Amino acid sequence: MLKCGMNGSQVKVFGKAIQALSRVSDELWLDPSEKGLALRSMNSSRSAYGCVLFSPVFFQHYQWSTSMKMNDNDRALNLNCKLGMKSILPIFRCLTSLERNVEKCKIFTSSDECKIVIQFFCRHGIKRTHNVCFQESQPLQVIFEKNMCTNTLMIQPRLLAEAIVLFTSSQEEVTLAVTPLNFCLKSSSEDSMDLTNSVYSEMSFGPDEFDFFQIGLDTEITFCFKELKGMLTFSEAIHVPISIHFDFPGKPMALSIDDMLLEANFILATLADDPSRASSPQSLCLSQTQKRSDMIRSNSKADKSGTSQTPEYISRKSAPKRLYPREAATKNSAGENCASGDNIFEVPESIVSDTEEGPGSPYLRKFSCMFFGAVSSDQQEHFNRPLDSLAIASDSDEDVING
Amino acid sequence: MKFRAKIVDAACLNQFTRVSNMIAKLAKTCTLRISPNKLNFILSDKLASGGVSMWCELEQENFFSEFQMEGVSAENNEIYLELTSENLSRALKTTQNARSLKIKLTNKHFPCLTISVELLSVSSSSRIVTHDIPITIIPRRLWKDLREPSVPDSDVSIYLPVLKTMRSVVEKMKNISNHLIIEANLNGDLNLKIETELVCITTHFKDLGNPPLASENTSQNRNPEEMAEVHIDIKKLLQFLAGQQVNPTKAICSPVHIALPS
């Protein structure tokens, strides 16, 4: 049972988050927990994932109780609410007028039916109620160890916005090239057929324009432009700098915003560096997930990447496997996953067995092998919610629709 | 073939950007002619369909602090290239706080015009923005089609009123008729007229002033009150007026009455 309330300006931020996630895909998971309310979205090709977690202090009041849904298995602790973007986006459409007119907004779940109720208490005594039906579906989740990336940048959104202006909306992918002395955003030169007509643009910045600039690896990564724009608009709205975490081509990158009240993470697949790559988003994911699953499955196959950083990556990536047995709780970021908790028992076997499977595995299982960053500063806190999702992520394909 | 030029003055850069914006509004592709002293933007829509044909000349000394070019050959020391006008204006959009702008002809897999802008930023390091605009080199045999058009002898020449005013007048008229009649005389009177079955609307501009005429004969024989008139397509005129961003000191309109053989 979810019950939370917001005022006008909080509604605006909430709406902006939904708009940013709408750039990722057409479906939104509302995933409340005692950590706060998480909005998650993943695109159909599984090459982009977005999550915005609003902590309980963001809201005027926030209440999540699981007493109504107690079952014998853990999965019932989730709300399992999947909404279509088409239903929820129009509700948060004119954000500036919402901010002006709405005095209070209440969001709560209906105890019996699969329904989310959003109520706006506006000026002049006007009350607007939206009943949105949802599909019961396990939220997908991605865990990504962004703290373990060799390259981390923190940039003011306005700066990035000035670079974005260079590219036309027809540009699908952009390339980010970094060295310890330079940062360069340029149009991706994938399809040689298009080149004769399109303008190639690039903008380079010096390191002192960033709030934080740490480059451990000279690299060039290519990713989808659309999701970057979505995240950028959101961060401009809340005036918080964006952190970019990445490694080498093929490994996913993270765009994140960390604030006291909320945390947003967009995990994007990057184009892998092998010669057989194609430029369509579909294969972006394919090569990316294949690469990841290859690396996860066996250390030796990582030689494909051909960079000297491979062994480092392998040791990082294989760390997750070691994390599950609880004795390997040495690293900070590992801590949150290994904290004591009853529900962890189920997880290790399923994860390990997932990675052992053949190429026919659905994308979901491969994605579940990535780790998600810390939700709160308290790293040691019991974090069973995402692990529940991980354990049963493979079920989310079967959407259970309740009448 | 070589071309390298640099603009460092902010006002020149601004003006150059406005010229390219104007061209982008007029036509999709344009021809750029580079010669030792000048830069020309040439648009040649087919005149038969009532299109806008434009010849724009920029003295290179007025804009560029550095200018070097080497044409196709010693006898033909010019370069003609064709590009999509929107690409150029979009590339120049990022020049708001630019310290300098460099343009050069390059060959990166295919011929390009590379625009390189150095931007001032709040911190000490400057930002470099580069755009490679794909171009096609126009072969010498087609150069004759792109020569400077000779302005035909006109009956009347008149200074136009403030273009913004003219544009708003013509804008309102376009909903009523497709053709506009422009009448002008040597007394400084200009009329913009539309005629339909139901209504006839005329806007009168007076005391506009006339530039000195090239050919003395016509001016002597002509009654100053007599109007010379032309019929033009409103949409094309609006396209021209909408594109005007360069704030001309004077705009001269010379209606040329073309007599059709009967």
TrEMBL record, chain A:
Q: Which CDD domains match?
A: PCNA
Q: Does the keyword Phosphoprotein apply?
A: yes
Keyword Phosphoprotein listed? The answer is yes
Where is region (Disordered) located?
275-321
The entry assigns this protein to a family as follows: Belongs to the rad9 family.
How does this polypeptide assemble, per the annotation? Answer: Interacts with HUS1, HUS1B, RAD1, RAD9A and RAD17.
Q: What is this protein called?
A: Cell cycle checkpoint control protein
What organism, scientifically named, is this protein from?
Ictidomys tridecemlineatus (Thirteen-lined ground squirrel)
Its taxonomic placement starts with: Eukaryota, Metazoa, Chordata, Craniata, Vertebrata
